[in-house]
Write a structure and sequence with these properties.
about 130 residues, elongated
Length: about 130
């Protein structure tokens, strides 16, 4: 049982760490693609707002479908969010998208990350 608790705690810690690993990259990315610092802050804030709004939903879903299922879906959603962010960042750096299109794509990816990121600690705490 102690091993299971450790694995659950580790998964929650890794999920939170995953969200913070990208933060130091956002400022240079924003500057490189020509967005303002306000736009970069908007990108980060919307991910946090998505986490706040999604937390109660993940709690209810963990009651209905189980904690482990919510944790797994959370990690898959985090993966999807990071893939979307990487694709949007690559497209913006290559000049394929620019300005408001780049901001919208990067912000949408941060929202996806935020919506799913909170599932892991919510499921882990409930478990």
């Amino acid at each position: 049982m102690a091993g299971i608790k450790f694995a659950i705690a580790l998964s929650a810690a890794l999920a939170v760490m995953a969200s913070t690993l990208i933060l130091p990259l956002i400022a240079p990315l924003v500057r490189e693609i020509g967005l303002s610092s306000t736009q970069g802050g908007l990108m980060v804030s919307t991910g946090s707002l998505a986490m706040m709004l999604a937390a109660p939903l993940w709690g209810r879903l963990s009651e209905r479908f189980g904690r482990r299922a919510v944790i797994v879906v959370g990690f898959l959603g985090i993966l999807l969010g990071y893939l979307l962010f990487a694709f949007a960042a690559r497209s913006a750096l290559a000049g394929e998208i620019a300005g408001n299109s780049a901001l919208a794509a990067l912000t949408a990816a941060r929202v996806v990350m935020g919506l799913f990121l909170i599932a892991v600690p919510a499921g882990a705490q409930a478990l």
